[in-house]
Structures are given as C-alpha cells and as structure tokens.
Design goal:
The protein is built from 19 helices and 21 strands. By secondary structure, it is α/β, with parallel strands linked by helices. It has two domains: 202 residues, P-loop containing nucleotide triphosphate hydrolases (Rossmann fold), CATH 3.40.50.300; 218 residues, no CATH class. The strands form five sheets. Strands 1, 2, 4, 5, 6, 7 and 8 form a seven-stranded antiparallel sheet that branches. Helix 9 packs parallel to helix 10 and helix 13 runs parallel beside helix 18. The longest helix has 21 residues.
Length: 589
C-alpha cells in the first residue's frame, strides 16, 4: 500500500515547523483553531497546488516575524509495483530517488512581488540530499502519487456536487466506478465502436468505409464545397472524438429524491448532502474490500469534520466506514467528535494544540503512547473514553480527574470564578469524574501517556484506602496499620466480606478527625502529611478537610445540595476557600 509516511510543514499558517508521523488512519483532534484544518490543507498542497490555492496570509506570521516561504516535505512509502503507473522512460530516474521503499517529495511556495509562487514537486536525491525534478516535469511522478479527495467542512456544496472530476463528488464517484470499469469496458467499447461508424469514416485493413447517415455526409459535402471555392484542390472532412470509458466515468454524478422531484445534490440541505457522502464512502469501502489485487493510482481521503450534521449513531458509522477505507487507501480526518476516538483508534490519533498567549501563534502536536494500556486495564480505558468524559478532555488544555459528580460540579464553579484572578483567562480545564478513588491514579497515568497535562484530586480517605497502590514508602504501611487500629478502638469500622476492614456508614467524618484537626493522633497526622506530600509529587492532591462538601458546610444529610451551592459560588455569594484556590493554581504549576 502506497502511503504518506510523514509530513514536515514549515511556515504555513500556524504550522511554523512541525513534523507529523502518518499511518493508514489518522485522526486529528484538538480545540477550534488548533491547526487541524491547516494540516489537511498542507497535505493537499503538497500533492496538488496552484497559485490560486495560496494567499499571502497563508504564510506564518506573528507580531515579530513573518515567513517568506512555505516548505512541505513528504516521505512516501512506495512499493515498487506502483512505479509501473508512470511512463517507462521516467521509471529509472524515479527509482534512483527511492531508498528502502521511501521517496521524499518537496514543494516550496515563495513570494514574488508579494504574490505566492508555487514551485513544482521535487524529489530528494539520496546521493547528495538535494532536491530536483529528474523527470523534467512533476506530472511524471504524480501518476502514482495519491490523488487527493478533500471533503471540507464549509466548502460551497453547489461547487462540490458538480459533475466534474475535480469536485469532491466527482472524485469519489470516479473511485467507485473505476472499481467496476473492467467489467463494463468491453461492452461499452463495442457500443462506442458502433457509434463511431455513425460519426466518422472508418479504416479497416487499408480500406475506408463510410456508414455515416446521408444528412451528415451532406453537411460535410457543403463545407468541402465552400472551402474549395476559395482554395481549389483542398479537402476537408468532419472528425468526431467519441469518449472512452474513462471519459464517461469522469461525467458521473448523482441525483437525489426526498418527497419531491429528482434534483442535484446542491438542491438538498447540508445534512442530506453529508449523508450522501457517507453513502458514497460506504460504497467505496465495499468496492475496495471486494477488488482484486490490481495496482491502481491510490487516493488519500482528507475529511474535515466528518461528524458535521450527523446524529451520534451515524457519527459512529462514519468512523467505521473511514476505518474500513483506510485498509486500502490512506485517510486523514480532522474531528471534534469524541465518538470517532475509540480505544482501538487511540494509536491513530494526533492531538494538536496551539500555544497559549503570550507565546507565538503556532501549533504543537502530541502523539499518544502506543503501549500505554495493560490488557487487563482495557475496561478502564473504555470507561475513560466514554462520551461524557472524552467530549471534555480531548479538547482541553488541562485535565483534572476527580472522584464524583459533586467534586466536578463544585470545582467547575470555583474555576469559573477563579480563572481570571489567577491569570488563566485563556486556559481551559476539563474536570472529569472517574467514579472511584481507585481509578483516579490510573486515569492520570493514561491521560499523561496520551499527552494531556493531567492532575487528580482525591478525598482524605485515599490515605488509608488507595495510597498504597501509588506509593511504595514505609510510612504508608505504618499509617494504615495504626489508622485501622485506632478506627477499630473507636468503633468506626467493620470487617467486609473480603476480610478487610471498612468504615461503617456515616462514620467518615470521625475517621477524618483521626488524621487531621486539633484532636488528631499526632503521629498519624505526621505520617499522613508525608504521604500527602509524596502524592503531590505524583500530581495527586489530597483534600485536607476530607471531602469537597466539607469546604462548603455540606454535611451527610445535605450533600445533595451541592448544585445550589455551586450556583451561589458562580454568583459570588460564597467565597472560595483558600485551599481550593491554591489547588486550582497548582494545576498549572
């Protein structure tokens, strides 16, 4: 399979100097304005570009500098059989540029008199590292490089649905119909050959035959007569160029009907048109799956916001279709939909983030660790990537993992009132609830390996019920042993079915008092402080007052009122405790 292995982009919009490793399937995710569309467009410009595709504001610039050129360098994995698609005279020259099945291609865009100038594609010469076009023209190797199918989010649908080979609809239909062209080619060529006899003189075995209708012969005769009146001895004949199968395929289009007359796609709404793209892509995936091993020019599908105008179930279906297409042709999508980012697709994900003010306007990329999940922990990853979590953290600057819904709601309210005060007006925090203190450190580890800046918050009971899975220090064992002994003496605990001690219902605040406060056990308090400090080094904050509700006077019988408290925090009616302000500042430390 011929694929784009990597793409280096310099000086294009927010892509100052960035190198992207590509796979068969590539999912670009990030907030608005993170640079996802820029990557798609840069990929297109590498393979297909003209001066009208580039504007002056496409050159990177900030308050201090502006790029004078755009450089796009792509490394393509080229199985040698694809070279058969180019002319024989060019094949040796191209083959000399390939090392270990990798061909490096470059396009440079400069400014001339203030206007963009697009240079032809160049190939890297392995001997000296220089770039040139050994075939004289870049069209010689464009014959086997991927054709671009670029479905943009906000492209004029009336343009994209036109029956022409350069429009998206035309390109997709061409790819679909080409899969069956061999099956219809012979019959169609016989029909065209018969039609040829009705339009042109036919020469067979050195003899000329004229089976044209008399009316056509008469028209030709009159033209000939008028010409010979002026240029005696001259001759003229009509010649009609009939299409071949590929010409007919390039005219393919579709019409749609929905409780009304048949119309072109641009006569329907955006939602209907997007569903049409889905249907066409599904058909293409089916045809590619059924095709033989014939070597054809590949394509690269660039799809911007494939989820647009589609309900969640159809978004999931689009994800499956795109993944299926990527088994035979490369796919790069830019998405805001967490429904497309499944556990099995995490290693196909590229996270894009734009640097925050006051840093220069530029895009950075982050690649999730391919091996960041142990097989036994797959269920935790699935839980992490469920919609209500991933829709938040996939597009955030920072992630905070908490235990429950009250933690999330109250901390979101505090952040709403605190962000500008602590100088973090532009940053976004995603607060996600894990449902259990046991899961908090695991999710922190996962998210960090996925390149998300992540920290976590746990209740005080994590010291005796969870810290031992994170820390391997002597104090944890001493702390837990003494805590449970004191809890037993105070009749705060009971034995669980698994033979381990657990707190009795409603006695958690009494247990907290053993560790913190004026009447706590001093030795237990010191050990707890040491454990808390060590957890902090691992980006886990332990709430010193026990639980988030305790900071706002919510007791066991009033914990359910956290929503009302959160609303009052947002109105400025409740002051945010110092520890929680310090916690929110710590997130960015």
């Amino acid at each position: 399979m011929l694929t784009l292995k990597s793409l280096q982009i310099k000086g294009f919009r927010s892509l100052v100097d960035i190198s992207l490793p590509f796979k068969n399937l590539n999912i670009l995710i990030g907030k608005n304005n993170a640079g996802k569309s820029n990557v798609l467009l840069a990929t297109k410009l590498l393979l297909e570009a003209s001066a009208r595709d580039v504007a002056e504001n496409d050159f990177y610039r900030n308050e201090l500098e502006q790029a004078e050129s755009i450089e796009l360098v792509g490394e393509f994995i080229i199985p040698l059989e694809y070279l058969d698609l180019c002319e024989a005279k060019h094949k040796p020259k191209i083959q000399n540029c390939i090392r270990d099945n990798v061909l490096t291609v470059r396009r440079v865009i400069t400014k001339v008199d203030g206007k963009p100038k697009v240079s032809p594609l160049e190939l890297r010469q392995p001997e000296n590292g220089e770039y040139s076009t050994p075939t004289g023209i870049d069209a010689a190797f464009k014959q086997f490089l991927p054709e671009v199918i670029f479905i943009e989010a906000f492209k004029d649908p009336s343009e994209e649905s036109k029956a022409k080979s350069t429009a998206v609809l035309g390109k997709i239909l061409k790819q679909i119909v080409e899969q069956v062209s061999d099956k219809i080619n012979d019959d169609v060529m016989v029909a065209i050959s018969e039609a040829e006899k009705k339009f042109n003189r036919i020469t067979r075995e050195g003899k000329e035959f004229d089976e044209r209708p008399d009316e056509l012969k008469r028209v030709e005769s009159r033209i000939k007569s008028h010409i010979q009146d002026i240029f005696s001895g001259s001759d003229v004949r009509l010649k009609f160029n009939l299409p071949n199968v590929s010409d007919l395929i390039s005219t393919a289009t579709v019409e749609l009907k929905d409780r009304g007359p048949w119309t072109p796609p641009d006569g329907k709404g955006q939602g209907f048109q997007r569903v049409l793209y889905v249907a066409l892509l599904q058909t293409l995936a089916d045809e590619l799956r059924d095709e033989t091993a014939a070597v054809n020019r590949p394509f690269i599908l660039l799809y911007e916001e494939p989820e647009a105008f589609l309900h969640p179930a159809l978004q999931r279906e689009v994800g499956n279709i795109i993944e299926s297409i990527s088994k035979t042709n490369q796919v790069v999508i830019a998405s805001h939909s967490p429904l497309l980012v499944t556990p099995s697709r995490m290693d196909s994900t590229i996270i894009l983030r734009q640097e925050l003010p006051p840093n220069p306007h530029k895009t950075n990329l982050f690649i999730p660790d391919d091996n960041f999940v142990e097989p036994d922990d797959d269920k935790q990853l699935i839980s992490l990537l469920k919609l209500n979590n991933s829709s938040e953290f996939l597009f955030a600057d920072f992630v905070l993992v908490v235990e429950g819904v009250s933690d999330r709601y109250l901390l979101e309210s505090c952040w709403h009132m605190t962000r500008e005060k602590i100088g973090k007006k532009f940053e976004s925090i995603s607060i996600i609830e894990s449902g259990s203190k046991d899961v908090v450190p695991l999710w922190i580890e996962y998210l960090k390996r996925m390149k998300f800046p992540t920290k976590g918050i746990v209740d005080l009971d994590f010291l005796w019920n969870g810290s031992g899975r994170v820390l391997k220090i002597e104090e944890v064992g001493k702390f837990c042993e003494k805590f449970w002994r004191l809890a037993d003496e105070a009749n705060l605990c009971e034995m669980s079915d698994d033979g381990k001690p657990s707190l009795k219902k409603g006695r958690k605040d009494d247990a907290f008092a053993l560790v913190v406060g004026e009447n706590c056990d001093k030795e237990l308090g010191e050990w707890g402080k040491r454990i808390t400090d060590e957890l902090l080094k691992r980006d886990i904050w332990v709430l010193s007052q026990g639980e988030i509700e305790n900071y706002f006077g919510l007791k066991l019988t009033s914990k359910g009122k956290y929503v009302a408290v959160g609303q009052r925090i947002r109105k400025g009616e409740i002051e945010i405790p110092n520890e929680l302000q310090a916690l929110l500042t710590w997130l960015f430390a």
